């Protein structure tokens, strides 16, 4: 049996993934956690899973932060990112961060099962769309878009602002002080050459970072 640990802050999402994986017959969901702190605690006290299913948008440390932490740990679990964010904006960033694959939450449940099986074997999983992006980047590198220069935390701040959340809400969600979030916002505005939240939102929509 393939042992899987789920890390997502939405209980309904975890329930849906659990049902999909258990129905496959060869996959056992051995645990569920909702944030980085509980993930670390589970890994310390529980047996290591064959595959970790990790969401990007977690309270406190984001999934991207978790990937960077795991990069320095030789015994870190093989991680499959399962996210609502568009593949074209986040998949390659996650793969560079150390993920074994990237699956969109809105995709076919059978794709999730296939991805888990491949990652459990130590193989990378990418969709045909991601594979095409990787080939294009290798054969004909495209000019870097402005938001690709953002740090993972800055990108997360951009997306949350563009999703209509106030700085106080973002601070609570990311377990940061409002002052720290304001610093991230200022850095995003400077790096993107923008002036206010409205321009940030328009930019994010045009780049496909959020839905309009």
TrEMBL record:
Keywords: DNA-binding, Phosphoprotein, Transcription, Transcription regulation. GO terms for biological process: phosphorelay signal transduction system; regulation of DNA-templated transcription. It holds the Pfam family Response_reg. This is Response regulator transcription factor. Residues 3-120 form the Response regulatory domain. InterPro entries: CheY-like_superfamily, NreC/VraR/RcsB-like_REC, Sig_transdc_resp-reg_C-effctor, Sig_transdc_resp-reg_receiver, Tscrpt_reg_LuxR_C, WalR-like. Residues 143-208 form the HTH luxR-type domain. The modification 4-aspartylphosphate is found at residue 55. Signal peptide: none annotated. GO terms for molecular function: DNA binding. It comes from the Bacteria.
């Amino acid at each position: 049996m393939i042992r899987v640990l789920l890390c997502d802050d939405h209980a309904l999402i975890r329930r849906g993934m659990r049902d999909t994986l258990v129905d496959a017959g060869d996959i056992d969901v051995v645990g569920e956690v909702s944030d980085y702190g509980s993930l670390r605690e589970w890994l310390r006290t529980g047996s290591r899973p064959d595959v970790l299913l990790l969401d990007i948008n977690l309270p406190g440390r984001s999934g991207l932060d978790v990937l960077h932490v795991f990069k320095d740990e030789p015994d870190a679990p093989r991680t499959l990112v399962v996210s609502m964010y568009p593949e074209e904006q986040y998949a390659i960033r996650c793969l560079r961060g150390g993920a074994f694959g990237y699956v969109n939450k809105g995709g076919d449940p059978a794709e999730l099962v296939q991805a888990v099986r491949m990652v459990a074997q130590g193989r990378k999983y990418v969709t045909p769309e991601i594979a095409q992006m990787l080939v294009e980047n290798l054969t004909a590198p495209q000019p870097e878009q402005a938001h690709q220069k953002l740090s993972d935390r800055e990108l997360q701040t951009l997306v949350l602002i563009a999703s209509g959340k106030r700085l106080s809400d973002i601070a609570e969600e990311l377990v940061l002080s409002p002052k720290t979030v304001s610093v991230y916002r200022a850095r995003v505005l400077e790096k993107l050459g923008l002036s206010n939240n409205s321009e940030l939102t328009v930019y994010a929509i045009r780049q496909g970072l959020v839905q309009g």
